[in-house]
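User: Hi! I'm a student and our assignment asks us to look at how structure tokens line up with a sequence. Could you show me two examples?

Assistant: Happy to help. In each example below, the sequence comes first and the structure tokens follow. Example one:
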Amino acid sequence: MRPDVAAVLKVAVREDSGVYYANSADLIGLHVCGTNLEQTCLRVVKAVKAIFKHSRGMDVEVIPATDMQTFPEIKTPCEQFVVHYPHA
């Protein structure tokens, strides 16, 4: 059995009037918002899973990239996600 493949998904997050908006140029269709960063991050995970399921028929695991040593350029855990998906 081959190991899963992983990809890093970069997400742009901005706050406007108390609402956090997140989208990604790496994944068309990813546009979510929330009333705080934690809620927005959870919605990103849920939306990425749904997009992969509906557009590619894949069940994926989505993990916020919170390890600052591995991803030193991130400012919040909502800016990068590791997406694990089955090898084709």
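Example two works the same way, sequence first and then tokens:
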Amino acid sequence: MRQPPRNQQPPPIKQFPQPQKPQRPEQPKRKIRTELFFLGALIIGAIYLVGYLSTHTFGDSVGQVRIEQGYMSAPPVFSGVIVRDEAVYGSSAANMIFHVENHTRVRRGHAVASMQGGGSATSESPGVVSFHTDGFETLLTPSNLESVARSMIDGQSHAAAHAAAFKVVRSHDWYVASYIPRDYMPSAPANTAITIFVAQPDGLLPLDAMIYRLIDRGAYFYVVFQTNLETLRFIDQRHISFQFQRNPEPGLRVPSSAVVERSAFPVPADFVTGDYYGTLTVLREGSSSRVAVAGWWASGGATFYILADGGNFRVGDVLVHEGELSTLDTIEVMLGVFVANRGHTAFRTITMPENFDADSDYIILSPLANPNIRLFDWIIADASAVYNRLLLN
């Protein structure tokens, strides 16, 4: 075998390039901030979801119920007597021959009827003829509206026997006099427009009227309504029944067990301060640190009611605010419910209806008289289970 010369170098070994690892491009800072933002939003959303589920999904475990819509009792019905400007004519309808039809409009001097033995009955003033007479035409007149007896309104007093053949209603204006218990009379002064619903054979008729007289008679109001509508429809009627609304009024249906009584000290709202965490505190005279309070605002935020049931305050305690003093010298007792819409309880005052049934499981509250609570609010079903330390706002 042939040997290579000793001084000859062996051929170099061929080198192949090594594969390079791909370099990861540097992420922009903006993308990192976006990821952190969405991560934070996800955490906040998760916290909110857990709170919502614990408040609503598991609401039954803490005795929460929602305020539902209910209906107040059927509207009360009142009696009224109609008063008109009327003139009666004739002595006996059997002895008269009428020349006009019932409910005919006649002018002054118009011959309405003639007597069989001679003579005629002539209208002394213009108006509408009605063949219905009841004897009240001279007893109930617009001139004596101030003194209509209640016995006449209730139908207990009857007019004396009469022999009038017909009457002429001389004005479009007519009146309804009534005695209404003060708890049911709408809070409206005289000369206020109002609608009453009058019972008729075919249902309730809405009648637009005006409060002409409103006189306080103790437990009752003597009320006179004035109108110039539906004159012909009521021309042959004297006693009527009416109400102030057509249907039962919708209300807020609240369990009776949710209503609780609480005592509180009213103080000017400026004396109460809230911190970042929502804790409410006041400064008591002679104290170097503020004291946490529980309660609620009222009077449009001008007054704060400090709960008096917790034992932290007594009558005679003095609060301090920027050099001004407020003495806790008044305790007010209020009825209310505990609203729990946001996972904690807050006391809200309510106004009870005048004629509620104390033995009923539910109470129907008027929305107008109870602006502190609303339909579908979550409230504590058993208010006796709520501790004062849970009173938060």
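Here is something you could point out in your write-up. The two ends are 107 Å apart (CA to CA).
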